[in-house]
Amino acid sequence: MGTNPSGSDSAFSAEVAAITTAFGDPTRRSAWLFARDAARTGVTAGEVAEHLGLHPNVARHHLDKLAASTYLEVFVERSEARTAGRPAKRYRVPVSMGADTGHLEFPARRDDLMVTLLGKALALLPRDRAEAMAEEVGEEYGRTLAANMAGVDAHRNVRDALHAIADALTAHGFAAHAEARGTSIAVIAEHCPFGSTASQHPVICAVDRGMVRGMLAGLGVDSDPETMSSKAMGDDTCVTLV
Predict the structure, then answer these.
(1) What is the CA radius of gyration of the chain?
(2) CA angle 68, 214, 164 (to 5 degrees)
(3) Which residue among 9, 28, 53, 217 sits deepest, i.e. has the most Cβ atoms within 10 Å of its Cβ?
(4) What angle do CA 8, 11, 216 make, to 5 degrees?
(5) Domain housing 126
(6) Residues in a beta bridge with 184
């Protein structure tokens, strides 16, 4: 085995992976910029398609990928003028990413102080209670993320749902991907945004397991994710099997 990268190098690599996944495609980048310029009203797939000269399904694919990685928010346009048909789904850039400023501002993926304090707080509780609490917090947040994962029909394709979950985890600093493992699918995270705190307080790993559980539930996948390996316990990657 080679030497492990420093915490800052590893965090930077995860950040690059997250940004590249979302914005490496020039069409997707243009779609995001168009949505940013229409921050107040948001955009529809049809509007993006017309602006970029794309088929609406292609535009929707790029917008949904950005939404799955939490770089866009999804909301439904409700207007009294719309009396028939399904409400229009619109996409907008979160305020935290510079929607009001016109500049791309990625939120910090890790706050050392808050993570350290979280680890210390969990350490004050009995292990089983701390783990249950950490997983519950992660699950609640995972459900919130799933609510913004537009275009993911888990009932029809669980594999696509897990790839969307991996994208969302990557956007939060986990550098994750999904791959087949026999008859199951593994979500593999190559970076831990909790840093050394996870090694000192491994119970904090229940947070990301809870996030996967919450996203699965929010996408309609009836499955109990199982942790197979953990960087906090000395493994090379964190693996959650679904």
Answers:
(1) 19
(2) 25
(3) 28
(4) 160
(5) 112-241
(6) 181
